[in-house]
Amino acid sequence: MSSVAEYVANLAVVRSQLDEARTDSVVADALPRTLAPYVDRAVSLSDAGDAAIASPDGRVVVASDPSRNGTAVRLGDSDVQQGRGWTGRVETPGGAVVAGHAPVIADDGTLIGFVVAEQPYPSVGDRLSDTATDLLLFLGLGALLGGVGTWVVSRVLKRRSQGLAPREIATLADHREALLHSIREGVVAVDVEGRVTTANDAARETLGLKGDPVGRRVDELGLDQRVVDLLAGTGAEVRDAVAVVGERVVVLNRRAASAGGRGIGSVTTLRDRTELVALQGQLSSNLSITDTLRAQTHEFANQLHTISGLLQLGEYDELGALVGTLTRRRAAITDRVAERVRDPGVAALLVAKWSAAAERGVRLVLHDATALPRLSPGTAADLTTVLGNLVDNAVDACAGGRDPHVEVELHAEDGTLRCAVRDDGPGVPEELREAIFVRGFSTKPEVLGGRGIGLPLVQLICTRAGGSVTVGRSAFGGAQLTVLLPVTAEVPV
């Protein structure tokens, strides 16, 4: 339409007639007859539905439709009256039209009229029919590319899914979810960015998580920093690490996860050992009492055999001296322990361990700085389990040596109970000081059996109570294990 309007506007006859019509009324009256052939010719040679020549004030001078002569031209947003060409959409009573406007400029630069060429705006059907060929071509190409892409994707998926069909993959995913959420042990998977990718029901309950943790960073779950480090840490795997979550004692094991030789994060299993710690503590105490009773039975049997022999020989003076010596020795041990250890349970344990150590040829010594008040029942139970295990380990470590002895130091102040057990055995190498707290690890011969439980139990009890246990070298050259526990004494020292 722009080309049609510009063609008519640039005809010499159109320009001259409009220029003359400005000053000659006769020429102006004859314009409809003079210029009509040029307008009709422009319409016949183009796709224009209508064409018209208008005066500068917007009145039709001559149009291909004579009924429009003298009417006002609908210009829409056109700025052709400012002497600029324009194309666009114009709303008319007959509907929307595509219009092209071209100004007619005199030689002196004055606007003497303009030409309008219009065509009815094509309907949706007309536009579709005009583009049907191209549309079919593009649709065909799109279908071809889609088919090829679908084939490539299906080949890749089959190779990645080991030939499983979509239904089989869905079934496998359902089984995986059911398996993860049905096992009682907690499972948490974390990607390389520290975001949780999997957490089953047991893990959420054990960690006390609210809401769905999947997709969130581990450090945003409100967990203790130690638990965060164990779950999202990198590097070496973690075995039987102990952490306290609320009132639970949790044991964590973490292993790195990889796919195609590329690290994708880690998987951590969590086991709630709160009840097990209590049961292990009771069992350890019972075993310790059993061993102590056995040692005392053996000691008393030897003494009774000696007394029986002296009676049969009639050595009554020797018998009296022996009984007096045994009585004084037992009283000295009991008095020394009772003087410094006011808690009856801990004192009874030390007296019993004294006999058990003596049977193994080990001297059990109470440090001069020992001063322990009466403890609450819970703290006393924890301390007897911890102390019993530490003394047993120390006796095992130094038994058979030259003048073996074990030293126990107990005292409580400022709300902290300190328990240190030292021996003169071979000690614990620095590279094994963390490994000895792993369940099942032991430096003792395998033939002894049942090893690797005592120290992990000590660590679990200390962790649950909010304390700690450390390993170092004693002043005697052996090992020193130091336990710190929060405590409130019932009776002052």
From TrEMBL:
The chain crosses the membrane at residues 135-157. It is an enzyme of class 2 (transferase). Residues 172-214 form the PAS domain. One of its GO terms (cellular component) is plasma membrane. It is found in: Cell membrane. GO terms for molecular function: ATP binding; phosphorelay sensor kinase activity; photoreceptor activity. It is a multi-pass membrane protein. Its EC number is 2.7.13.3. This is histidine kinase.
